[in-house]
Amino acid sequence: MEYSAATIMEGSAVPIFCNNRAHPETLLALLDRDDIRDLPVLILAVAGEYRTGKSFLLSYFLRYLNNQDSSEWLGDENEQLTGFDHKCDDKPVTKGIQIWNQPLVVRRKTENGSVE
């Protein structure tokens, strides 16, 4: 399956490697956008046995990154966790290597308190 920046729904995980097939066009469509092209990229890898909570953990990372300015980023305990697909089942849901299709830009505070 091929993706382009225009056809990828905002806020979802998309495969860049799945079923022994690379999808470089997807990676290029996401990283070659004018608004983020010159920004550094962080690669976050979560590895482990299947059905051990990797997608669940990644969804918490997304929640934090989308709420960086809030001390209440964890949300309510009854709030549904969204992001990477996960469920309580014996079968894996997330396969291959995926990238989040929405840029998560992290601003840093400098020593004088300004934001980069």
UniProtKB/TrEMBL annotation:
Keyword flag Nucleotide-binding: yes
Gene3D superfamilies found in the cross-reference section: P-loop containing nucleotide triphosphate hydrolases (3.40.50.300)
Keywords: GTP-binding, Nucleotide-binding
Name under which the protein is recorded: GB1/RHD3-type G domain-containing protein
Organism, as annotated: Meganyctiphanes norvegica (Northern krill)
Ranges for domain GB1/RHD3-type G: 38-116
Gene Ontology terms for molecular function: GTP binding; GTPase activity
A Pfam family: GBP
InterPro entries with a match to the protein in the record: G_GB1_RHD3_dom (IPR030386), Guanylate-bd_N (IPR015894), P-loop_NTPase (IPR027417)
Coiled-coil stretches noted in the UniProt entry, renumbered to this chain: none
Entry's family note: Belongs to the TRAFAC class dynamin-like GTPase superfamily. GB1/RHD3 GTPase family.
UniProt entry tagged with the keyword Nucleotide-binding: yes
Domain of life: Eukaryota
